[in-house]
Design goal:
globular, two-stranded antiparallel sheet, Alpha-Beta Plaits, alpha+beta
């Protein structure tokens, strides 16, 4: 699951990824994950933010992942 998600998004920390993704690629990613998910073991959560104007990211402790903005 993580390997597939990393093809579309930026790794942030452990199994957390973030990034900007088009609607078409989002649908494609979800279809690909549906084929490989082990529903009794895996879990994937998607959070969509309508605008970056009201979003921010605060980090406490060790910073992991890239310097990309949260999208």
């Amino acid at each position: 699951m993580l390997k597939k998600c990393r093809q579309y998004l930026n790794w942030v920390q452990n199994s957390v990824l973030e990034g900007e993704i088009s609607d078409a690629n989002f649908r494609k990613l979800k279809m690909e994950l549906e084929r490989i998910i082990q529903k009794d073991e895996d879990s994937v959560m998607f959070y969509s933010l309508r605008t970056t104007k009201y979003s921010s990211r605060d980090i406490m402790g060790i910073k992991k992942g890239g310097d990309d903005n949260i999208i």
